[in-house]
Design a protein that fits this description.
The chain is an alpha/beta fold and 306 residues long. The protein has helices at 40-57, 78-88, 105-113, 155-170, 178-186, 192-203, 206-210, 213-221, 225-248, 261-264, 268-278, 292-304; strands spanning 2-8, 13-18, 24-30, 65-72, 94-104, 119-124, 128-133, 139-143, 255-259, 284-286. Helix 3 packs across helix 12, helix 4 packs antiparallel against helix 6 and helix 8 crosses helix 9 (225-248).
Length: 306
């Protein structure tokens, strides 16, 4: 029997599989699976591809999964958890009596980021959310309502503000600096037709929009005023999330794990974020202890051996 942890986000999905000896036999990777980003059929396809990648690489035929813990973006209410759980039951290798845990991906992030110790995890990736657990097992989260609400401080947020900035540069409301010039050149935007095609194609595509964040951080590091302004606004929003969680909880262990490439890449964005968090309390800030997907797999193993 096998035990599976899944970490599903707006950009990619990972599946970690453990055997009966609690050994990691592999980690598979596939496309996006957040249910607020893609259709449930795509979600299930991504789950299946990531899982089967591991089984195929290990030449395992007719595998049986006894327990699976899924942390996936877009899951907030019990109804959405049940929806995903019922779809997962249909996978051929899920045992009829398998334990199927489904939570928002922030739970998997906390499991990996803090080793399930009390503290706060701050996800700063395609989306954004702060989630904390204190010594009394009280929990609170701030943000993470999906890109429709804004995902303030996330890569999507940076990308959306980049789109707005380009429109203002194009018609002269803002000066053209190296930041805008780089995006215009890279995306081959030279006229109104190309600009409108760009705006419309990115408008409802969260993943594509989030990919624009790399231009913001690149030029913020180079000192561009507009890129830094976007970063400053984003980090202010992330700090509001951390502060909201901190005020609700009674944390003795002031530990905070930042999860996601945007929040952990050295440069202007991360420097500003950490400095602002330190103004709330003297947090010990670090990258995740282990990967969310491994934390999820260990949770699945633990649940399957109770």
């Amino acid at each position: 029997m096998y035990y599976v942890g899944i970490d599903g986000g707006g950009t990619n999905t990972r599946a970690c599989i453990l055997n009966e000896k609690k050994e990691i036999i592999g980690i598979g990777k596939s496309g996006p699976s957040s249910i607020d980003t893609v259709d449930i059929k795509v979600t299930m396809q991504s789950f299946n591809e990531a899982i089967m990648q591991v089984f195929q690489e290990n030449k395992i035929e007719n595998p049986q999964i006894a327990s699976i813990f899924i942390g996936v973006g877009g899951v907030l209410m019990d109804s959405s958890k049940d929806y995903v759980r019922n779809e997962v039951k249909k996978l051929p290798y899920i045992m009829s009596d398998a334990l199927i845990g489904v939570e928002n991906d922030v739970y998997a992030a906390h499991l990996g980021g803090l080793g399930n110790r009390p503290g706060i995890c701050l996800i700063v990736g395609t989306g954004s959310v702060a989630f904390g657990i204190d010594e009394d097992n009280k929990t609170h989260r701030a943000g993470g309502y999906g890109y429709q609400e804004g995902d303030a401080g996330s890569s999507y947020d940076l990308g959306k503000k980049t789109t707005q900035h380009l429109a203002r540069v194009f018609d002269g409301r803002r000066e053209k600096t190296a930041f805008a010039e780089d995006v215009f050149t890279s995306l081959e935007i030279s006229g109104l037709d190309e600009l409108m095609d760009f705006i419309m194609s990115y408008h409802l595509d969260r993943t594509k929009t989030a990919q624009l964040a790399k231009f913001v951080t690149k030029h913020a590091d180079l000192g561009d005023f507009y890129a830094r302004k976007i970063c400053d606004e984003a980090t202010d929003e992330l700090v509001l999330c951390v502060e909201a969680v901190y005020k609700i909880l009674s944390l003795k262990n002031k530990e905070l794990a930042i999860i996601g490439s945007l929040g952990n890449t050295p440069g202007y964005f991360r420097t500003q974020l950490e400095a602002k968090i330190k103004q709330i309390a003297d947090f010990h800030i670090h990258a995740p202890i282990t990967e969310p997907v491994i934390g999820a797999a260990l949770k699945a193993y633990q649940d399957g051996h109770k």
